[in-house]
Structures are given as C-alpha cells and as structure tokens.
Design a protein that fits this description.
0% strand, 85 residues, single chain
Length: 85
C-alpha cells in the first residue's frame, strides 16, 4: 500500500461513526479517568478499615500485621487501628 492510502485508512475524521460520537467518547474517557483518580485513595482506606475491623474481631496480630504492612507486634497493630474505631 502506498503512503497516501495508510493516511486515509487511519484518519478517524473520515469515519462517520467517529465524527458523530467523538465528543461522547472523549467525555466518557475523561470521566472514567477522573473516577479512577478519585477512587484510588478511598479504596486504599476501605481496605485498611476492613483489615482493622477483622483484627478487632479475631486479634490475630501476625496475620494482620502482614496485611497492614506493619511490624509484627500487638501494640503496633493496635495503635494503627485505633484511628478506625
């Protein structure tokens, strides 16, 4: 194929569907990116709250200190999870 033919194939403005939907697709992608940006810190906080809630129920310091990435001591986990009471 000649160089000119490749330009014609990959030019999105020649496709009628893209012309009619490009604003919607662009808006949806930006909305998805913003949602992922906003959700990440809250997802991490919910994960920590879940592990601290389980720790309060079972008091298994060894398992939950690994999950929370803390040193393996009762007081470390207790002090870290005291904020979530």
């Amino acid at each position: 194929m000649a160089k000119k033919d490749w330009k014609k194939i990959f030019n999105l403005n020649t496709y009628e569907w893209w012309r009619n939907h490009r604003r919607l697709v662009t808006f949806a992608l930006l909305l998805f990116a913003f949602g992922a940006y906003v959700r990440y810190p809250s997802a991490e906080l919910l994960r920590i709250k879940k592990y601290c809630g389980e720790w309060f129920s079972f008091r298994d310091t060894e398992t939950y200190s690994k999950k929370l990435k803390l040193k393996n001591s009762y007081s470390a986990v207790e002090n870290y999870c005291a904020w979530f009471k």
